[in-house]
């Protein structure tokens, strides 16, 4: 098996299933809501790109704990919206209100990095990723 994808949106999963993939690479996709159990496995790499800000604030710590435990002895690659500078965070909020019609919950990289450390992960890299009016942070961690 080559990989696994999880999303709350069936539309996103259907689109991912239609995407081109390398020959011999089997990808499985699961539609899972926030309160359902994630698939278990021994994963080399777990990737979360721009997901956390869509998770309700009260559930964010649990989501990060699930990411941390899912990476096992592998690597975690995590990117999300940064709260600084403030004007870029506001631009991200407006973008999500228009595009996904939802309110987002931005949390800073210091808090997320602290959570990863609490969960027993070692931070390998942490950097800002600024493109146009969007500001993000990238964290790479491993056990």
Walkthrough of the structure:
- The protein has four helices and six strands, in the order βαββαβααββ.
- A four-stranded mixed β-sheet has the order 3-4-6-5, covered by helices on one side. A two-stranded parallel sheet has the order 1-2.
- With 143 residues, it is of the alpha/beta class.
- The mean pLDDT is 90.
- The radius of gyration is 15 Å and the shape is globular.
- Helices cover 31% and strands 29% of the residues.
- The longest helix has 14 residues, at 86-99.
At a glance:
The protein has 143 residues and is of the alpha/beta class. It contains 4 helices and 6 strands, in the order βαββαβααββ. The model has no long low-confidence stretch (mean pLDDT 90).
Describe the secondary-structure layout.
Layout: E1 3-7, H1 10-18, E2 27-31, E3 45-49, H2 60-70, E4 75-81, H3 86-99, H4 109-118, E5 122-131, E6 134-142
Parallel strand pairs: 1-2, 3-4
Antiparallel strand pairs: 4-6, 5-6
Characteristic key phrases:
single chain; alpha/beta; four-stranded mixed sheet; 4 helices; globular
